[in-house]
């Protein structure tokens, strides 16, 4: 159940990314300051550069609008108006809080994600006040809550007992291999666990049948018309991999692969044993330290050219990208530095 709840949440949120729409929109367009919007996990929606999609205090219906974000220490009514990576504190100020899970570093109780009623910051780490747990989030990363106690979780590609309860965060126990596996990892004809609410085990474009087998999923093409013959497209007429552009009235290609992004993100979270904290985009969170580059690469292709996300984490992007993809860069730099030192010594 834990993985189902999380994946439903994150997939719904990701559906808005890049192709974020207004409420019941007919087509996609970038929005200016003050225009009504629908937010996403990045607080950006389809707002133009430098804006976020936050609650509009002047709107009696509590709708969201594209606004300039509140910075650290500025007053706030809720977290939606704060800059990326900040939440609205109990004293109504945008603050870097609730970014640490159990066992992670903190400097005050407010840094801990589960709240001060459950967790305290003791000796520089978030610790649970109770001696027993009720969910995996009340355990340190790499542990699972079983029978009210935190025990070592089964890691990826390790043998499991047939229940996703004992697998590490977000992983599930594959019926085919009896190994803890990543979501969306099962191939065609592999055995899966049918779930009427949410299908998360089979690869994209596959679905788990009622017989418990990954089969090809079929799109309803009857609702997709040939937009090239129409003066104005609509969201429903464009189909998968495209979006309806308001300005041209045509269906344009959308290069964003939601399932690939979700899979990469999930794998990074699992391998680095990060927990899903309330302020996951805090500069101090486990996700930001290890997996931020995945979202940054996606946001570089933002259709509205909103750079607020990439600018906020530019330094983290460089650190993560170099450390994970460019090890030769540091070696080359060290080699050149040594050559320069040798040359200086030779001159003297």
Mean pLDDT: 76
Low-confidence stretches: 8-24, 219-229, 317-339
What's the count of strands?
A: 14
Indicate the radius of gyration in whole angstroms. 23 Å
Range of helix content = 10-25%
Largest beta sheet, briefly? 2 strands, antiparallel
What class, by secondary structure content?
A: alpha+beta
* Morphology: flat
Distance between the termini: 70 Å
Q: Which series of helices and strands comes N to C?
A: HEEEEEEEEEEEEHEEHHHHH
Alpha plus pi helix count: 7
Strand content: 5-15%
Q: Within the largest sheet, what's the order of strands?
A: 1-2
Oligomer: single chain
What does this structure look like?
This protein has 348 residues and is α+β, with helices and mostly antiparallel strands. Helices cover 24% and strands 13% of the residues. The chain contains seven helices and 14 strands. The strands form seven sheets. A two-stranded antiparallel ribbon has the order 1-2. Strand 3 (87-88) and strand 4 form a beta hairpin. Helix 3 (258-271) packs antiparallel against helix 4 and helix 4 crosses helix 6 (314-325). The radius of gyration is 23 Å and the shape is flat. Mean pLDDT is 76; it is low at 8-24, 219-229 and 317-339.
